[in-house]
């Protein structure tokens, strides 16, 4: 059975719990309780440390990124939707099948989408970019918060470090399948790269 981590952000005693009954004691009947369950301790910690995000303003390049995976084709897909002043100005949809990245499935696609977005912003002379992602590793590997112990995370961190010397990169967490139309757009682009129609 998959282990779960229950992050109680606002409750009687905030913290990370490994059983629901322990977490439930902290939130049951507590007004305005904030809590979530995760399948990894890293994601639970990231949730606990998450700060309220500043709003995205005009004249700021934003890229929504996502990844997908096709089991039969043994390939990952990447999707990027670029937004500027509330309008989609460009999109990217591509796939890959490097053996060393395949074990990461859609995570490889999302990380490579993030790098492609940063590279595009550099090529088009933007001083900064905000990457909107749904997999926490996109930010946590880049910032060094998570260890890079897999081929995709190592390659991602190495490339990110090079690019980030030339452009300011901000990150924003978007919850997967939350009905955010721009996140859905990036998801569609990632799937389209693999011939998956939604």
UniProtKB/TrEMBL annotation:
This is Ribonuclease H. SUPFAM superfamilies: L9 N-domain-like, Ribonuclease H-like. InterPro entries: Ribosomal_bL9/RNase_H1_N, RNase_H, RNase_H1_N, RNase_H1_N_sf, RNaseH-like_sf, RNaseH_domain, RNaseH_sf. It catalyses: Endonucleolytic cleavage to 5'-phosphomonoester. It comes from Streptococcus danieliae. Belongs to the RNase H family. The keyword Magnesium applies. Keywords: Endonuclease, Hydrolase, Magnesium, Metal-binding, Nuclease. Its EC number is 3.1.26.4. It holds the Pfam family Cauli_VI. Endonuclease that specifically degrades the RNA of RNA-DNA hybrids. The lineage of its organism: Bacteria, Bacillati, Bacillota, Bacilli, Lactobacillales. GO terms for molecular function: metal ion binding; nucleic acid binding; RNA-DNA hybrid ribonuclease activity. Residues 57-195 form the RNase H type-1 domain. PANTHER family: RIBONUCLEASE H1.
